[in-house]
Amino acid sequence: MARDKGFTLIEMMVALAVFSLAAMALIRLEGATIRSTGILDETVIAQMVARNVAVDSLTDAQPPPNGATGGSETNGGRTWTWTRQAQPLGDAGAIRIDIGVSDGAGPPIAHLMVIRPLAAGAAS
């Protein structure tokens, strides 16, 4: 009996199983990529808010008071909560400013530390 050319049912089932495994791996990878994109977007916006607070702290005529202060800012359509901790450095000629930004529901997403020189005779 002559054999017909083509694939048998078993060969087709094996090929379909291999294809489905590859497709499932790609779908999982896509899900992980989408989650990572959301986290990256959140981190970038939080860093922008931290930089904005740092610029305000560095360009204000008066240095921020020693200790912790906080506030909120809207950026990217979301409200972000920031905290700023100012403390004098050893030589009293500068202050260290630590800034943390969170989405209000958890720990800080972005951190930034800047040093602000004090004008001669200025103290906070």
Comma- or semicolon-separated keywords:
single chain; 124 residues; alpha+beta; Pantoate--beta-alanine Ligase, Chain: A,domain 2; 1 helix; Putative general secretion pathway protein I; membrane; cell inner membrane
Biggest beta-sheet profile = 4 strands, antiparallel
Percent in helix = 40-55%
Q: Given this structure, which CATH class is correct?
A: Alpha Beta
Which percent range describes the beta-strand content? Answer: 25-35%
Give the radius of gyration: 28 Å
**Total helical elements:** 1
Short description:
The chain is an alpha+beta fold.
Report on this model:
The structure is a single chain. The protein is an alpha+beta fold and 124 residues long. The protein has a single domain (9-117), classed as GSPII I/J protein-like (Pantoate--beta-alanine Ligase, Chain: A,domain 2), CATH 3.30.1300.30. The protein is built from 1 helix and 4 strands, in the order αββββ. It has one helix at residues 9-59, and strands at 67-75, 78-88, 94-102, 110-117. It has a 4-stranded antiparallel beta sheet, with helices on one face. A hairpin with a 7-residue loop joins β3 and β4. The longest helix has 51 residues, at 9-59. The radius of gyration is 28 Å and the shape is rod-shaped.
